[in-house]
Amino acid sequence: MKKLGFGLMRLPLTDKDNASSIDLSQVCLMADSFIENGFTYFDTAYMYHQGASERAVKEVLIKRHDRNSFTLASKLPVMLLHEKGEQEKIFMEQLERTDAGYFDYYLLHALDKNHYQTASRLNSFDFIADLKKKGLVKKVGFSFHDSANVLDKILTERPEMEFVQLQINYLDWQDAGVQSRLCYETALKHGKPIVVMEPVKGGRLAAVPHDAEYLLKKVHPEWSVASWAIRYAASLPGVMTVLSGMSDRDQLNDNISYMKDFVPLNSGEISALRAVADILRGEQTVPCTACRYCTDGCPRHIAIPEYFALYNRVLKGEEKEFVLKEYNEYAAKGHGKAIDCISCGKCEKSCPQHLPVSTYIKRVASKFDVAEK
Ligand code: SF4
Ligand code: SF4
Fold first, then answer.
1. Which end of the chain is less packed: N or C, by CB atoms within 10 Å?
2. Are residues 277 and 308 in the same domain?
3. Is the beta carbon of 288 within 6 A of some atom in ligand 2?
4. Is 223 exposed, middle or buried (0-12, 13-18, 19+ CB in 10 A)?
5. E strand residue ranges, the chain
6. Last residue of a domain, one of 228, 249, 281
């Protein structure tokens, strides 16, 4: 299998304010090109694009391509489960939405210490093992957001898991919170193939500061900045595939150009990335990956990832007056402003990056709302 997977969580939209308005004609062109170039792995989930990602699978892939010409991964949303019976209901809904007949890869979604407890209490591991026995899923695994110790515990207690999906990128490699390297080594110790998510850290590693970009361009002027991040993850032994949440055809074409006949990075290239990581660690930007897991539960309908992106742009030197206009447009469309946050903490419970979201939202408020007064 080629080491590039198509992540279906940041698809192009026809209305940028409506996450479920997937631009199906664009996605058809992208998926066709992906498959024509020999790539096979597509990754969706119950929650992506408010359910529209799984429905897009039916329109884009199932209705238009031989089911054996690609593999499909989806995920059971453990974070939404309260009782056992819900698992069956959700799985049947996923089969109906996608019309896929079966999933080649089926994951418990975003396990951490708490979600592992939920999955254990509700026998989710037995549930997916049973799906495998019935031929409704081919391989079982889980995506993961916690420390290497928690990962080690899960893989020790659940040796039947066949693969893991980990957040790995060159910036989080040594990060004490994400623990990319330690989690990677733990998965290898247990002999589990790895699917990499967030190789570009939600886009952060696609637009690095000028001094960091200069270092990369000096080595390979023709490589895109984002490609360095994907190449880094794909160069790691034991990695089965690297997911890229592609949002347009330029990103797709760029990814295909170097992943079709992939050549791993050499030691000099990895050293350049280490120097870039040092520069990025000095930034004070909010490390949000724009996964949007926090947005549905916010009682004030605050556009959390969008506000963080605007805040980061100002920190990186963009004209505040210009960015403030975009910020105010969100409020005009019915979103709460950052200053409307009531610190309920719901967003923090669902954030796989374990960000202190409400603290960051206060910083956004002091940058954009307080400045307005
Ligand atoms: S803490 Fe603020 S941003 Fe987070 S869910 Fe509550 S109101 Fe929304
Ligand atoms: S704040 Fe956390 S949950 Fe919300 S979009 Fe960012 S990374 Fe995802």
1. C
2. no
3. yes
4. middle
5. 4-7, 41-43, 71-76, 103-111, 137-144, 163-167, 194-197, 239-244
6. 281
Give residue-wise pLDDT tens across range 188-210.
999 999 999 999 999 999 989 89
Task: State pLDDT tens for residues 305-346.
Answer: 999 999 999 988 889 999 999 999 998 899 999 999 999 999
Output the pTM of the full model: 0.88
346 CB less than 6 Å from ligand 1? Answer: yes
Q: What is the pLDDT of residues 59-79, one digit of tens each?
A: 999 999 999 999 999 999 999
Q: How far apart are the first and last CA of the chain?
A: 56
Residue 372 binned pLDDT confidence (cut-offs 50, 70, 90): very low
DSSP state of 60: I
Residue nearest to atom 4 of ligand 1 (CA): 347
Question: Of the residues 281, 316, 341, which one is the last residue of a structural domain?
Answer: 281
Instruction: Judge if the beta carbon of residue 345 lies within 6 A of ligand 1.
Output: yes
292 in a structural domain: no
- Ligand 2 contact, 364 CB (< 6 A): no
CATH number where 128 lies? 3.20.20.100
- Name the closest-CA residue to atom 8, ligand 1: 298
Co-location of 191 and 84 in the same domain = yes
Does 352 map to a domain?
Answer: yes
> Is 351 close to ligand 2, i.e. is its CB under 6 Å away?
yes
Instruction: Measure CA 192 to chain center.
Output: 20
Residue 61 sits in which domain range? 4-281
Ligand nearest to the CA of 344: 1
| Centre of ligand 1 from the C-alpha of residue 298, in Å | 5
